[in-house]
Amino acid sequence: MFLNQTSHYALRAMTGLVRAGNSKPVKSGELAEKTDVPSHYLSKIMRKMVEAGYVRSQKGHGGGFVMNIAPEDLRIIDVLTASGFDIDEQPCVFGWEMCRNEDPCPLHPVWKRLKDSFNEWAYHTTFEDIRRESQDIEDKFKR
Amino acid sequence: MFLNQTSHYALRAMTGLVRAGNSKPVKSGELAEKTDVPSHYLSKIMRKMVEAGYVRSQKGHGGGFVMNIAPEDLRIIDVLTASGFDIDEQPCVFGWEMCRNEDPCPLHPVWKRLKDSFNEWAYHTTFEDIRRESQDIEDKFKR
DNA sequence: TTTTCAATAGACTTGCCTATCTATTGAGAG
DNA sequence: CTCTCAATAGATAGGCAAGTCTATTGAAAA
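^ Those are the sequences you sent over. The predicted structure of the assembly is below.
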């Protein structure tokens, strides 16, 4: 798997929230069911999104989660980072701690190409892209 | 992490073996030390490389592991697959089991771009590329 | 004010990937 | 034939991410 389970869940949840629109808050339970993420686990992930400022939460009656940022201003990297993924902690495949471009490990040149592709994707794809490209696709979160 | 620890180890080990040349077998312990992989764990991984036919092993005195395929014929995807990584088991980030191009999940278009980049890298990079691009780099497997 | 709803917090459990340990098998050297 | 070396096999343990459970906090409705 490219990303860990938590990151997957985070991307799903934010996609679900963006697609739900901003008309009214989306309840954790609803979002969990829609995105097929374990509900209590989703709560933990959404908390991180709230802390990062990408989502607002409302307790109590009629409460739930609402987007707090325009989809075009939210990139995939932002959600991944907020969910705990740290691109800089991804070591070179060699596991050599101090591997840098100027002082590389043997697999560095090859590995760097993969990493660059990933970064291109994660830094340049926004949730507006996701929304636009998925607007003709119906929700099919359930397996 | 893009790949799991085992896949990292496999790539390191095979890189180490390719760089060691074919003059004489490389002992498991030596390869383990050179690539900073736990030695007993490396043995298990090398076993898979042997089973896949990429490496020959020799027991006993003077034994060890030798490449059994030309570096230009061994792709990254081959080593990943042999080590247990299954590209087709990598579900769409939505976790929707039946997600295909013709019948996609909401994140499919975006996710596909990442997957395509990865495949381009894994299917088109050979260990000859790795050897060539690393020939001016000294071994620095230890962290 | 009370009731109900829904997020939050944190402790706890589970499960799997890694890693280790202890034999055993097999091959060459002497 | 025996000794040593090194891969192989399988059982066992460790550690961390993932998932669950229970209680608490906070807000709106009645």
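The longest strand of chain A covers residues 55-58. The interface with chain B takes residues 1-4, 8, 11-12, 15, 19, 35-36, 76, 90, 93-99, 104-110, 113-114, 117-118, 120-121, 125, 129-130, 133-134, 137, 139-143 of chain A (CB under 8 Å).

Shout if you want it in another format.
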